[in-house]
Amino acid sequence: MPAQAAGTLTISSPQDPGSWDPIDTFLVNWSSVATNIYDGLVYRGPDTKIVPGLATEWEVLDEGKRLRFKLREGVKFHNGEDFNADAVKFTFDRLLGEEGKKGPQRSNYAVIEKVDVIDDFTVDLILTQPDPVLITKLAGYGAMIVPPKYVTENEEDFVNANPVGTGPFKMASYEPKVGVKLEAFADHWGGAPKLDAVEYRFISEPATAVAELQAGRVDIVIPPTIPISMVPTIEADDKLEIVSVTSPTVYALRFNTGNGITADERVRKAMIMAVDRKAIIDAVLGGQAKQIASFQSELSFGYDPEMEPLPFDQAKAKELLKEAGVAPGTAVQIDIRGNDATFGEVTQAVASYLQMAGLNATIKPYETNVLLNDIIPQGKTGEMFQQSWGGWTLDYDNTAYLMYHTGERWNPYDSDAELDALLESQRPMIDVDAREKVLQEIAAYAADRALEMPLYNLNALYGVNKRVKNFIAPPDSRMRLNEVEVE
C-alpha cells in the first residue's frame, strides 16, 4: 500500500535548494516547490501565458519606463500579515538593496529604479529604461512577494528555512537534504487547494526515485531525474505513466575560454566538430531531445530556426587541432553534475568522440551545489563544464546576458566588448522585431566564437502515478498544485 495519507501528494525532487528566500536562488528545483508557497504580481502557467497573480491588472506608461499595477485586495500572507502596496515596495527595495546584492537575482531586476506607492493597492515600478521582459520576470524567482514584518523581525537564516508567502500552500516543515512538507492554505485568494498536503522528498539518485515511484511511495518524479533508459520500465507499469513535454531546458558543454587549449577558438570548434551530437540524441536520449545550434530552445524568443549547428566532421576536427598545435593525447577535463545520470551517459559519449579526435578526455563529477556555487562561478573548471539552462523567461536575453556578458556569474572566463554591446543594446528595445533580430545576431556571434558545445533541448519527462488527477506538466518544472487531486 502507498504510504501517503489521503489527500497528500508526494513528489521526488533531485535537489535541496538550500534556501527558500526568493532572492537567494536561480534553481528550478526551488521553483518546483516555491511556486506553491509564493505568489508574484503575475503568474505564468503551463501554457506559458502571463496571467494576473497578486496584481489584477497592469498598464505600461511613459513609453515603457513606468509600469502601474492594481493589486488584489483582501489577500493574507500565511502568517496573517496583510498583502498591500507596502509589501510590494518592501519586496523590491530588499531585492535591489544590500540583501539582494548577496544573491543571484538582482541583475534580472536592475532596470527597476524604485517602486512608488500610489495608494494601498496601486504601485508604480519606475524603470531606468524600458525592459520588454520585465513582466515575465515578475512571474518568478526574486520577484515573489514577501511579508515585510516577518522578514524584518526574523534572522536571515530563519527566514531562509521558514518561508512565508501568499501561495496556495504553506511550509509545514523543512528538513535540509531530506525534504519539505507543505500544507494547504485554506485562505488563499484563489480558493483552498484540493490537496490537503504536498510532500517533497529530495532524492538525488535517479534509480532510487524511480524505485520509490514504482513502490507507490512517490506520486510524481520531476525532471530531469528520470534516465531515458528507465522510460520503458515506467511505461510498462500499468499504474504509472511518462508525461513528456517540450521544455525550455537546453544542455551544453561550455568552454574555459580563459586559459589552456580551449582559449583557442580553433580548438573549441574542433571539439564541437569532433562530436556527433545527433547520434548521441538518438542512441543515449532515445530521441527525447532536439539538436540545438545555439544555447536556447524553440520556446525561446530570439530562437532562429534557420541557424545550423557546426557539422560533425572528425577529419576537420583533427586538422584544426593540428593547426592549433595541440599534440595527440592532450588531456581535457569535463566537469559535470554527479547526480545527472542521463547527462553522465551523454558526457561519456562526448569523451569517446573527443578520444577519436586525439584528445584524452576525462570526466569529473561534482555535487550539484558545489559545481553551481563554487567551481563554475569561481572559474575553477576544467576545459569544459556542464551547463543546463531553462531560460525561465522564455527569452534568449535571460540566457545570453547571464552566459556571455562580462562579469556575470556564469561567465567566469570571457570578456568581449562587441558581445557586451550587442547584449546591452537589445535590453531597452520596445520594437519586438528589431529586438528579435539583435538576439538572433547574438546567438550567431556566440556560435561563431564557439563559446560552448551546444548539445540538445531535452523534453521534460515526468514519471506520474495514475492516481494523480488534474496534473498539467509544465515545460519548466514550475508546478502549481492547487487544482491537483489524488485518488
UniProtKB/TrEMBL annotation:
Q: What is its main location?
A: periplasm
InterPro entries, per database record: Peptide/Ni-bd (IPR030678), SBP_5 (IPR039424), SBP_5_dom (IPR000914)
Q: Where in the cell is it found?
A: Periplasm
Q: Please state every residue range assigned to the domain named Solute-binding protein family.
A: 49-408
**Which superkingdom?**
Bacteria
UniProt keyword list: Signal
- Which PANTHER family is this protein grouped with? D,D-DIPEPTIDE-BINDING PERIPLASMIC PROTEIN DDPA-RELATED (PTHR30290:SF38), PERIPLASMIC BINDING COMPONENT OF ABC TRANSPORTER (PTHR30290)
Family according to the record: Belongs to the bacterial solute-binding protein 5 family.
Name used for this protein in its record: ABC transporter substrate-binding protein
